[in-house]
Amino acid sequence: MTLFELALLVATLLSALTAGFVFAFASVIMPGIGSLSDKEFIRAFQTIDGVIQAGQPVFGVVWIGSVVAIVAAAILAILQHDGMVPTLVSASAIAYILGVQLPTFRINVPLNNALQTLNVNEMDERALDSVRRSFEPRWVKWNLIRTVISSSVSVLMMLVLLWL
Fold first, then answer.
1. DSSP H helical segments within 25-124, as ranges?
2. pLDDT for 28-39, tens place per residue?
3. Which of 4, 106, 109, 128 is the most exposed place for a label (fewest CB within 10 A)?
């Protein structure tokens, strides 16, 4: 196995794990907590996000490692291959960074952080409703985008691995 193949394999695994993570939010977590009252919804999201933000080492390795691995795979593809392989792997890396990582840090995480600052026990129903309406639709929309792109990137990299 070449260094490129190893990098691509790791990038594929880590991006697939990331896709599974955002898919779980899209298909189970957000629909599940979506049926809660505004106060319960915000508190549930704060709790779930609090676990993520607590610095889970495995989560951090997967999330950040996916970026490192896919960039390394793209660089090695460009240096070691001709034809479609460098194009497909580089396109995957660009799509992953722009379609998964960028929205995460520009949209989803800032929304999460804003929610973390709230004390739901001190908020009235109107304020809870307003916060939820400004948070939930935007967060869900961008998470769905992250899910589709990370899943597509994972499949594309699997196909490149099969092609090699």
1. 30-34, 38-53, 57-80, 84-96, 102-103, 109-116
2. 999 999 999 999
3. 106
